[in-house]
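User: I'm preparing a small set of examples for a lab meeting where we compare how different chains pack in three dimensions. I only have the primary sequence for this one, and I'd like the structure in token form so I can line it up with the others. Please keep the answer compact; I'll paste it straight into my notes.
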Amino acid sequence: MTNIMGVSSNVSHRGDSMTKTNNRQGFTILGFSKSGFSCCSQWYVCDYGKNGCALSEKDNEAAEHCHCYQRNNRKVTKQSTELDSLFDLIKDEDIHSVFQTIENRAFLERKKREKAEIEERCRRADAEHVKKLSTMSDYDVLLYAVKDWTRMSAHRNTIKKALTDGDKDEAFRAFKKMINESGSGGGMISYFKFYKTIEIKTRDGRCLTPSEEELWDIYFSAWEEENALSLFSFL
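Assistant: Understood. Below is the structure token output for the 235-residue chain.
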């Protein structure tokens, strides 16, 4: 017979009787009915199973048949079972693929933002270039191009030394080598020599085609003005 607390009334205070009763089929080791019971005398410790089973260390079967424990843990157990079943269906390689996809998407989004930032910087730079070019005449463009061309050239020191020494012919020969061997593109003003034609292009759409002699005259005049001297001073 089982009392209201679920403990068999056959349990006696004698050790032999307790052992005999606890080993009976249908009862846990502490004598709780496997048919189920409402709660045990330790309900205030476990708070009706909300804090786990107070007897788990002494009787690992009691919680399985305690109605209070089962009622308060049924939802958690159900959710855990559902999650376990879900993850059982997913293969390790599928999980790796999902995370790899997330990483790839994050990488692509980052590259997309970086590209947009670069494009925005280029757009602002183009706008500034066009604004500056709107104040420059064709002569100003040619002067800017020939100065920048010389500044970036490996022949710049030869040109400047020859001019300083008063050897205009040597300076012009080095200048022609510079025109034929170098150039620059992608900036506010681009300059190249294609075959026999010099092309100087601007961001605002101009394309100027001066001769080597015309560029040289512009450069030499600017050099004379900047250095406040003339080749005639050497005579």
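A couple of notes for your slides: Residues 15-89 form one domain. The longest helix spans residues 92-133.

User: Perfect, thanks.
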